[in-house]
Model the fold of this input.
Amino acid sequence: MNNTSDSLQLPAMSAEKFGDWMLQHTQPKFRARQVLDWRNKGVTNPDEMRNLPKALRELLRTGLQCEPLQPVHRQCSTDGTRKYLFELSREKVAGKQVEAVFIPEAERGTVCVSSQVGCVLDCPFCFTGTQGFEANLTAGEIVAQILAIKHDLRSEPLPRGLHSDVTHVVYMGMGEPLANEQGVHESLGLLMAEDGLHLSRRRITVSTSGLVPQIRRLGAEQPVNLAISLHAAIDALRDELVPINRKYSLAELRTCLDAYPLPAQRHITLEYVMLAGVNDRPEDLEALAGFVNRARERVNLIQFNPYPGSPYTGTDRENMNKFAQGLISKGVRATVRRSRGQDIMAACGQLKAAGSTP
Ligand code: SAH
Ligand code: SF4
Done:
């Protein structure tokens, strides 16, 4: 694997950029189309692009970084969820690992991508947060996670009744997407491009712990669906659970969310991981109901996923349902999220590379 610059990662090249590159190498236009058709289907290894002449395959292999991620390991959950471990190959970060998850349902297939190795932030209930920050992923490395999963699903589809292609993408894997604006914005462009993966912005969700200026920029430049890791609606408690709150308080977050552009029929999701005795008390419910903008937001209650050494206990199912009912009775739209892939540590907050994968 060669280490060409980030901008020459095949998964991240726009049709225009790739067309120019092919032109510089005196390749006909229709060949560029053929390569991108393969790529968009998930095939990025030139040797698998069967309709290309040998010389062109060689040119692609030597001139571009076609596969910025190497699949290292795959685990399959009993519910169909697949967790993938990838190794980066770019100079300086070679050997570092990230994870992505595919979550199949009857009508949709969702990929959960990582945006950083580790995370710049350190929410105390999050496995990734305990790892510290190691690197931002490039757009190519973010898109490559999706392409590699598409490839895997083509070679080994899921059993009948479960979707075997990628219809939705959520930025909820390792890392804080909005602390890697360049990689994330660029990757969003490629996911939505007509000659890229051509996913509608309604099918893409960025989850953030609440970086206010970055949320504003996302809304102005790439207004995809937004999920906010709220986890507390009382400042003192949120300062502890989501430490970025010390920088951007709930009041600032409120103003910013109210200004986020939403298409018709869409809402912002407020994620709320339920920690027994910590944020599931009656006063927490009161505060949360007081924070939510009922017309534009809904609350998604998440079961806490424990990991070795985690300092919290999750609220039990019965109390989660009661909490949800309490919100609903106050006119707040609230749902309890079903956890997927828990048996393979693929659930929210359980992702952490290198050494932790059983
Ligand atoms: N950094 C971003 C996106 C990645 S985390 C963010 O924080 O939004 C994806 C979601 O998983 C977030 O809502 C996060 O708060 C939640 N999460 C983290 N650790 C968890 C855990 N142990 N159990 C359940 N959810 C967790
Ligand atoms: Fe980072 Fe999100 Fe985990 Fe917080 S919850 S440490 S922002 S990945």
Observations:
- Residues 119, 121-123, 126, 128-129, 175-176, 209, 229 surround iron/sulfur cluster (ligand 2) (CB under 6 Å).
- Confidence is low (pLDDT under 50) at residues 1-5, 353-358.
- The first helix runs from residue 15 to 24.
- The chain has ten helices and twelve strands.
